[in-house]
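User: Please predict structures.

Assistant: First:
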Amino acid sequence: SMVNGIYWFPNPNATRYLFSTSAFNLKKGEGYYQNTYLLINSFNVGVTDNFSIGGGFELLSTFGTLASGNFQPIFFITPKVGFKVTENFHAGGGILYASIPDFDNGDERLEGGLAYGIGTLGSIEHNFTGGIGWGFFDGDFSNQPFITFSGMTRVSKKAALITENWLGPDNGNYYGVFSYGVRFFGETISVDLAFINNSDIAEEIIIGIPYVDFVVKF
């Protein structure tokens, strides 16, 4: 698109915020690699225009357990569907499945994740997403849902403001975590610099816990 006579390339990372996803989907054949904190690595690929699948692993558990001779990495799988409902509204859903070694019980693993639905209002340059999902652990689902609401707005050719926020069940109540930051990007890469915060974190670190990731689209 042209903005004040200057070409703005399309947002290269419209399908997700920090951890959570929007209802926009990768096109068939598109994909990206994401690295978070230099430790968590993930890949996602568009199988069709409406279905993508991804997965990833965590480096410390991968190399630590490999060196000990008992290879048990933390890994996760993330299938997702997304559909255009109207010009400015997309809907979707998916599953986050994670497998974590149970270091107290030998070769056993802990399995859990989140099954969710989301709706995104707006364009790939300016949007808001609301979502709801139920966590599961060893086959049992949570009684109360997780709730997310996130947003992104592009403020210049190479930068956008971004926020991602979670409400999680906590013994009949809800526990909130919010984030705010800036996304810098080129045509095929983006870098997020953000802070994760809530009232408990702010007591120790007033601006929140720094968050860093980068995404390379292919």
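Second:
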Amino acid sequence: MHNMASTKEIKSRMESVKDTKKITNAMYLIASTKLRRARSELEHTRPYFEALRGEIKRIFRTAGDVDSPYFYPMGHEEPLDGTYGCLVITADKGLAGAYNQNVLKKAEKLLAEHPDTKLYVVGEYGRHYFQQHHIPVEHSFLYTAQNPTMQRAREICSILLSAYERGELKEIFVIYTDMESSLSSAAHSTRLLPFHRSYFSTSAKEKHEKAVTAPFEFIPSVTAVLNNVMKCYISGFIYSALIDSFCSEQNARMTAMDAANQNAQELLDSLSLQYNRVRQAAITQEITEVSAGAKAQRAQRRKEV
């Protein structure tokens, strides 16, 4: 009786693992579809972003001493004192390995180094985490981290730049996940503003860039043109960070679900082996009992004869 109950329990457990495997497999397929779509968006974004950076470099080659609020003052490259702003990009949900935890660790490191930091958070996971840990959030972008758009990037850029231009934020950081390849991604903490001038200087390796053969004419002024281009560049950077993070999230979820599928299969194999052993033991027990009963009956008959 005990063995029969055990086979029933094992069978029930196997059904439960099979149901879980269906879910993890479906999540893997959904993540791979989203990743494919987001990757093509990323490929379309990067050329625009690189072209803008190239134009800013050309302006610097023409007027390297230009004054702009988006850059450290000439000759000053040290971190500034005051309140920092930090855009933290997380996912809307978990089940993506260490994807969210890696971003949150970077955010906590920045908060530890510079406690006077205001957080601007994208993604339900990050919002929930900071709320749980009683860490105040300056601004939660209530739209989803799924399917980022340029419009959303512009809205985020506008909120951050308004605070920066009013002098409320001295430096702005973005913490996001960069998908370096299909096999690896890493959480990055990048200072978005102010820029070091050297970031837009042309290195010896970049000889292929267009040479400035004639001086540019800037209307109304070089500062106005640069500031306008910088706003586009910052929106582009945020959009690229949103898409990069989204790609990394889907990639991390695929890896996590693939591991879950393999674990489920190993568990099924183990349970199947256990099930067969218990079933065989039950059959052996029954045969032994039948055999012993038959033997007892034969002995009884011999006594009677």
